[in-house]
Amino acid sequence: MFPRLLHIYGPLWIQSYGVMIAIGFLVFLFLTLQHPLRKKLIGKEEYLNTLFLGLASGIIGGRLLFIFTDTEAFSDNWMQVFYPWVGGFVVLGSIIGILIIIPFYLRWRGVPILPLLDLAALYAPLLQAIARIGCFLAGCCYGAPAPGIWWSVTFTNPHCDAPTHIALHPTQLYMSLASFCIFLIMRYVGRRLLPTPGLAAFLFLILENISRFVVDFWRGDRHPIITSLWHDTITVSQFQYLSLAGLVLAVVGFIVIRTKRRS
Predict the structure, then answer these.
(1) Cβ atoms within 10 Å, residue 39
(2) Angle at the Cα of 78 from the Cα atoms of 74 and 82, rounded to 5 degrees
């Protein structure tokens, strides 16, 4: 594929992954900025500050989770953890980073937390769907070998993160499609939950964790921690356990809020 688009200087390149994230972010910014709920909850300038703080939190959180879960990538030189062009990010870490930092900031600024998270949940899947195209172009988050499958993909660019000249599952496209489907669900189902703050956000987290857990069965860059589940037919990675934990917490949160509404 095309992980590098334009050379800047030395090791610095404009990466296709970064470009797709930027496009996704701009689409997210435009859609949420125009939404009536945003105009009701928070001013434009304050919202932009919140959004860029969320972007920074997502980048840092995604980078930290990648570092903690793939220490081997930096075993030769630990200083490379500070080089954004070495290694990558984990979307789950980005979500965790945002969920940790943004509520504290909104509380400090006196902005309702759950309604604004609901608004973000409506369009976050679309941002992810676009960003995952960047994963595909960069060859990161690659799939397991898929010989004989007509929709498999073979990377040949030596700068890609994926193994070259091997037919692989296009898990990046699986995740992109899953995120787009979640976007459609949030658009037609999630927005109906907006009158009850928090339900749309927890619905998004439920769907996100389910999709990540399922697609990870076909990931080729995961290190399984259980290799003999169900007669050696299924392996489970540490990320899938994180997804299961996130799913449980999201379901509990959804039930608690819905129960409070009925009472």
Answers:
(1) 12
(2) 95
Tens-digit pLDDT profile for residues 10-46: 666 677 888 898 999 999 999 999 999 999 999 999 9
State pTM to two decimals.
0.84
Read off the tokens for 139: 């060859």
179 touches 128 (CB < 8 A):
yes
Residues 6+ apart with CB under 8 A from 213: 240, 243, 244, 247
How far is the C-alpha of 187 from the C-alpha of 177, rounded, in Å?
A: 15
Q: How far is residue 51's CA from residue 263's CA, in Å, rounded to a whole number?
A: 34
Q: H-helix or E-strand containing 204?
A: helix 199-215
3-state SS, residue 146: coil
In this predicted structure, the answer to whether residue 225 has a pLDDT above a threshold of 70 is no
Q: What residue spans of 16-159 are helical by DSSP H?
A: 16-34, 36-41, 44-69, 91-109, 113-138
